[in-house]
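step: validate -> pass
step: tokenize input -> pass
step: predict -> running
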Amino acid sequence: MEAARAASPVHYVNAATPTTFIIGGMADFMQPLDAGLDLLQAYVAAGAEVEFHYLHSQTHEFCATPSVMPAIMDEVIFFYRRTLTERRSFEDEARALNPFARVSSFAELMAELSPG
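step: predict -> pass
step: emit ->
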């Protein structure tokens, strides 16, 4: 059991860890939600970029369910477009159209939205 615990990716996440997409099923007894949340927290604590998706009522190997895969693949493709292949254009669009993307605090948002 100790070897399995030591092999957990939670112990190896750092700020240089590549952008990661975590996906799991909430009914997965092989890799329970708590394990995914621990991994998510490790990414957040390290300042590494991560996106987290858990699917209600899905078990381990949900990819074996053909009706689930198209939606999952759409999410994965969108993730890679936003974080890798088209990152700059997504960021530019967000800054141009979304005031929340141009600020880092509520005070800055209020200043941004204040007339004059």
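step: describe -> The CA atoms of residues 57 and 115 lie 47 Å apart.
step: cleanup -> pass
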